[in-house]
Amino acid sequence: MGLLSSLQRSSIVHLMLAITFFTSGLIINFFQCILYFGLRPFSKYLYRKINYYLCYSFYSELVYMAEWWSGTDIVLYIDKKEFDKYYGKEHGYLLMNHSYEVDWLMGWVVCDRMNLLGNCKAYAKKSIQYIPTLGWAWKFAESIFLERNWNRDKNVIGCQIKELTEYPDPMWLLLYAEGTRFTAKKLEASQKFAKEKGLPILKYHLTPRTKGFTASIPHMREKIPALYNIQIAFKESDPIKPTMTNLLLGKKVEAHMYIQRIPITEVPEGEEAAAEWLHKIYQEKDRMAESFHETGDFFTNSGVPKVDSFKLKRRYYSLINTLFWAMVVLVPMLYYLVQLFLSGSTVYFSIGASIILFFYLLMYKTIGMSEISKSSSYGAVDAKKVK
């Protein structure tokens, strides 16, 4: 155990993980690009079938870091009968709170255990699609990229949802309706805006931006059967905080995730009615967050009916996949670096050192992007866009 703990905290091992992740990502992006331009124009069905496995191979390296490297696990709160009947068997539209650095990764862990990981989609800022590896993978996976220019975005949403509803296998599309990750400063701005507009004032969530939601629902009716309301929380008493850095250091966290399946037909017709419905959902989510904060339980003080709690077993695929990529990438990469360092040439030595420095900086830049302090703003400018 002492050796394993030392390896999990080793910067050299972290660097090897980074080299494996980013290099495999570029290789996968290469094959995605060939298929996107060479196969997709002739057969979207076959392209999407193959791309599922390419996306899974890339995403599951991060799932490996969560559930195998750090030992992180998730307690699920789901109606068991509905879980057995619907979950992982249909297209779904996901509403999730955005309160932690790793909430998205916990979602991926659950999707992997439901055999959905390769078809996870999300709304994202348009600039992300230009970021190598993960951004390119999302682009080839047909995620929805928005500019926050409503006249353009509403057309993109309609066209892209039409494409996603045609997927041959179950697909889940995630919306963070709050628009950005929760912080105390953003909450203050959000509450001020809500008070000015006569909207519900939330304590544990930012006021949801409703335009993307209300624009999406009409294109989903009769095509996506259900909306999945997701509430994720970590106990504040846990000594290990849910951050990417802690997961990289092999520190285990435990997430608690409530998921409620809501038939899409329960969302009312019309933009104003759908927006009001979304605000009510977030009032309920706020009560659940407050109950969890006060009692460590979603249901004690929230008024939400208690449902089954259980855990899903880890699958071995993310472990096998990551070990495969480690061999494919690290064996030739380390051999090449050793040759550079032993060449006796200052130029070659500098090239080797530059390669290592590049991956090291890339790893910490990527981790930094997930930090709460680096998330986008929610202030006066953004608040004007919330309706």
Automatic annotation (TrEMBL):
Signal peptide: none annotated. Keywords: Acyltransferase, Membrane, Transferase, Transmembrane, Transmembrane helix. SMART domains: PlsC. Residues 92-214 form the Phospholipid/glycerol acyltransferase domain. GO terms for cellular component: endomembrane system. It comes from the Eukaryota. Belongs to the 1-acyl-sn-glycerol-3-phosphate acyltransferase family. This is Phospholipid/glycerol acyltransferase domain-containing protein. It comes from Odynerus spinipes.
